[in-house]
Amino acid sequence: MKTILWATLTANGNYAQSGPENPPTKEALDDFFTQVKDTGNFIVGRRTFEGMRGNGGPGPLADIDIVVISKNATNIPGVTVVRSPEEALDYLKEKGHQTALISGGADIHNSFLGQGLVDEVIFNVAPVLEGRGLNLLIDKENYCSKPVQLLDFKALGGGVVQLRYGIERAV
């Protein structure tokens, strides 16, 4: 199964954190919904999902397989709850999906990256600088690097630039 990690970064490379005082850009949100429609699914952490759910209701995600990874929650209406990245991917494979979209948050992204479970990353770089923030890491304990291959880049509008990279998985 192909896995795509989707994230918004700040212009200074931090993992962009959204909230009422710093909402995501319209361009990044539009791209997210396009990616979700293309894959038919997304994987998300519980806290990020709760933030996304907002005012409730299915909205544009009504026919999408949403998989929430949580250590604590056991049942969230309308979604499938699993305990690990592997369990999330197994579930989506069983449902017949060819591609999984990993939408966040940072802990979920870092878990997939650290386990070498990502084939491609899509970074939407937002036109903002943050004073502190989270980072995407392939190893939280040790310095290491992993080459990536630029697959595509494009301007989404509103100052947002999208970078798409391929990652070779270890065999």
Describe this structure in words.
The model has no long low-confidence stretch (mean pLDDT 87). An eight-stranded mixed β-sheet has the order 4-3-2-5-1-6-8-7, sandwiched between helices. Strand 7 and strand 8 form a beta hairpin. It has helices at residues 26-39, 46-53, 85-94, 106-114, and strands spanning 2-10, 41-45, 65-69, 80-82, 99-104, 120-126, 148-157, 160-167. It contains four helices and eight strands, in the order E-H-E-H-E-E-H-E-H-E-E-E. It has 171 residues and is an alpha/beta fold. Helix content is 24%, strand content 31%.
Features:
171 residues, 4 helices, alpha/beta
What's the end-to-end separation, in Å?
Answer: 14 Å
Average pLDDT metric: 87
Largest sheet, order of strands side by side?
A: 4-3-2-5-1-6-8-7
Secondary structure category: alpha/beta
Radius of gyration: 15 Å
Major sheet characteristics: 8 strands, mixed
**Overall morphology:** globular
- How many helices? The count is 4
